[in-house]
Amino acid sequence: MNTIALVGAQWGDEGKGKVIDILASSADYVVRATGGSNAGHTVVSGDKTYKLHLIPSGILYPKTVNIIGNGVVLDPKVVLEEMDSLSKMGVKFDNLMMDLRAHIVLPYHKEIDELAELSKGKDAIGTTKRGIGPCYADKCDRIGIRLIDLLDSEVFAQKLKSNLELKNKLITAVYGGKPLDYKSIYEEYCGYAKRLKQYATDTGAVLYDAIKAGKRVVFEGAQGTLLDLDSGTYPFVTSSHPITGGFCAGAGVGPTAIKECLGIAKSYTTRVGAGPFPTELNDEVGNHLLNVGHEFGTTTGRARRCGWLDAVILRLAVRINGLTALAINKLDTLTGLKKLKIATSYKLDNKNIQYFPADISILAKCTPVYEEYEGWTEDISACRKFEDLPKAAQNYIKAIEKLTDTPVTMIGVGADRNQNIYR
Ligand code: GDP
Ligand code: IMO
Ligand code: MG
């Protein structure tokens, strides 16, 4: 079997897009299985930068089949806009497939996401307002509209009508918003259906045959482990399972279909949106990470919160995802910092805590226990071998391996697809 899952090991934005693009160059299939247009994956190739939200990051390779799996919540408007803008950059979509079972994000999902956030006030989650939570909620409530429904205008009409009746009550009576118009949504989405029809298929069956035939399949994670609905910092999480277990359900394959699990992390930690973040830095070092690392959201443009690397989080990611290796991106961003720190455990009421607490109110009271490392000042962006790195940078990577008991097989030293060290 020739399959690998790439999963975010922190709070998202770990540089998954870059690594997936690299692996996609030799892949037959790239599969998105979870999340939706809340994802923003960046691929940099020479002077071109591609920002992908719903289209899998293997799309730049014409021979690679790109699959949007059943577990993705598909926003037809966003995906078609994304395709239009990518096609202006020369990208083709002959090898794109979308699963018939994928749930459709509709205007009322986005409206409710926005209104629900507003009504929460200071307790808002800080969602991307892409309608992700409300769409997954409808899926669980068994009233969702799937791609297969959208493609049948009569079924779509009937489901949209009954859902909109319910959602308009929620929008107006609960949130005090304005009702949405059935006819305009129906017509707009029937237009999208016409364009999407050619890509719609049973992608789980396609994948099953591909894996049996020994094809190289890359599962593309979106979000990250700490945003997982069960294992993350609930309720400050996304509404799906962006972990390797979630990829199986979301791609329509069994757990034995995934051979290797590569966790992607940054050499420090970032988070967008609200919720506890033990190693967060609101000081000069935090500003260094924000500015040198250009830590602004790919989807929303929000400044990301920045802090030291947290080995407690990485150990959780190793455990939940069954990681076989780690890729550490953005080592170059640490250049110039005199001393580096990694949280090795937490302290709570003078007790040492090795594991990530289940309760965020406890997590919020935890203070990180740090180990300190020497920094370096040399420009490492042109390094292509581990031995080329300054000794201090080598030691920092070795420390991550020791603290997580997991080999670091890839190191990112720049945003370009060529700026990597392989081990
Ligand atoms: P994703 O959501 O995990 O795909 O990550 P994003 O694309 O949202 O954010 C990662 C950012 O870091 C993007 O701007 C990437 O181009 C950039 N990036 C990825 N790897 C590296 C690296 O090794 N060094 C630097 N400097 N930038 C990187
Ligand atoms: P990629 O794939 C970083 C965060 C949001 C918010 C929480 C819930 O680019 O790594 P949602 O809109 O999903 O209901 O928001 O999850 N979030 C992400 N943070 N990277 C992402 O995706 C994210 N997708 C969602 O900021 O805190
Ligand atoms: Mg991102």
Explain the overall architecture.
This protein is an alpha/beta fold. It is built from 13 helices and 20 strands. It has helices at residues 16-24, 76-88, 107-120, 132-140, 147-150, 153-174, 182-196, 203-212, 244-251, 284-292, 311-321, 360-363, 391-404; strands at 3-8, 29-32, 41-45, 48-52, 65-68, 73-74, 96-99, 103-104, 200-201, 217-220, 260-266, 269-271, 305-307, 309-310, 325-329, 339-348, 351-353, 367-374, 408-412, 420-422. The protein has a 10-stranded mixed beta sheet, with helices on both faces. α3 (107-120) packs across α4. The two termini are 22 Å apart. The chain binds guanosine-5'-diphosphate, 6-O-phosphoryl inosine monophosphate and magnesium ion. Magnesium ion binds next to loops. Guanosine-5'-diphosphate binds at residues 8, 12-18, 40-42, 44, 298, 329-330, 332-333, 412-415.
Q: Major sheet: order of its strands?
A: 9-7-5-2-10-1-11-15-19-20
Number of helices: 13
General form:
globular
**What percent strand?**
15-25%
Uncertain ranges: none
Rg, Å, rounded:
21 Å
Biggest sheet overview = 10 strands, mixed
Briefly say what this structure is.
With 423 residues, this protein is of the alpha/beta class. Helix content is 34%, strand content 21%.
Outline the fold blueprint.
Layout: E1 3-8, H1 16-24, E2 29-32, E3 41-45, E4 48-52, E5 65-68, E6 73-74, H2 76-88, E7 96-99, E8 103-104, H3 107-120, H4 132-140, H5 147-150, H6 153-174, H7 182-196, E9 200-201, H8 203-212, E10 217-220, H9 244-251, E11 260-266, E12 269-271, H10 284-292, E13 305-307, E14 309-310, H11 311-321, E15 325-329, E16 339-348, E17 351-353, H12 360-363, E18 367-374, H13 391-404, E19 408-412, E20 420-422
Parallel strand pairs: 1-10, 1-11, 2-5, 2-10, 5-7, 6-8, 7-9, 11-15, 14-16, 15-19
Antiparallel strand pairs: 3-4, 12-13, 16-17, 16-18, 19-20
The structure holds guanosine-5'-diphosphate (GDP), 6-O-phosphoryl inosine monophosphate and magnesium ion.
